[in-house]
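tool=predict chain=A
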Amino acid sequence: MVHRKGFGWLFQFVLASRIQATKPGCKSRASVLEWQLRSDTRYLVRSARGGSDGPSRGSMTKRRRQEARRRVEVGCGRATDVGRAIGRFEERLSVLMVTNGENTEIEYLKGLAGSGLLNRLVRAPKVAFANCAPGALVDWAIRERERNGYDLVFAVTDKDAFETDSALRKAARHQVRLIVSNPCFESWLVFHFENCRSFLSCADEAKRRLRRYVPEYDKTALRFTDFEAGVLEAVQRTRGHGGDLSVNPTSTMWQLIDELREPECAR
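tool=predict ok
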């Protein structure tokens, strides 16, 4: 059988008109010509559509292999010939959030990580607990950053009676963001509901104020849904303090949320 290439189909057409077909269902010369015409019509249609058995089969396969081997870089797209928009492959940021708060902070950070408040470039952050003072917490975060290569690392702590200045300096040297709430994490939660300016002497006083808005608040069973609607308002209220930890109450949690909503690489 002559391969259908170039004028091969015409040759077959002429040849078929001179012989008696043995194909099933072909009883006469007229039926031979009809069968040949249908066969060649199907071939031409498949070729026009780029079918797998068309004359360009080998070249198409080679081109596709070359396309598959083409190197695709992060942040770059590749043009295609099928009318689709150019795609983009974007690098996502790995994030670690570690805290020395065993209950409240852990549940809040997990809720934040699973909410729709974060930038799409942020991969689901890992939330971890380390039972230690702010200085040791920073050391723990530095080790984890070096071991696992996180893009962003946050260490979240209460100020309470701790001295945090040296921990803040160490964190800055090692690209760790130390996030501090004064006097406690509950003071940050209060800002979700009001721009509190009353001095909060301790965690218990902050909890009493918080229960004005969340009567069933339980430190050991925080529900992020109680606070989600007020996150951005809390950010606005505490950002105005400029990170001054001598203010009471205050928190630098706004820095963590700002960074995760608009990472530096996306600005």
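Strands lie at 95-99, 126-129, 152-158, 177-182, 250-251. The first strand starts at residue 95 and ends at 99.
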